[in-house]
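cron nightly-structures :: item 1 of 1
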Amino acid sequence: MCSYCGCRDFPLVGRLSAEHEAIANAAGQLARAVRTGDGAVAALDDLLALLLPHTATEENGLFSELRAEGSLAEAVDLLCAEHDDIHGVLGRVDRADPDWEPVLAALDRLRRHIDHEENGLFPAAVIALPIDAWDRVTPATVDR
């Protein structure tokens, strides 16, 4: 996770980064559960419970502002396509007869996706977006 540029000092980025850590941990737990054959469906549900609201926050907040600003719109479109891909794979698992190979591949893509956001998009967003955009997407419950 990014720790060098100060982007986590922006409340929304700090929140999204903390969520990335929780998502990465849950993805690791799912991968371990798949390998051991113990509790994989529950671990998948735990991951989805973290991932779906996180993605909605990104897409409806930060990504929306970045699209409007324009300079990072192409990167945002690629990240949203990755969201759709990963969610599609994880959401289509047949819980009665799961095929875990596509899930494990999606977890690898999720790890790379988080890295792209943490070390690419978030630092770039801090530079690209004006303060009023950050004011619009900063959760009201976060102290500044």
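cron nightly-structures :: done
The chain has a mean pLDDT of 91.
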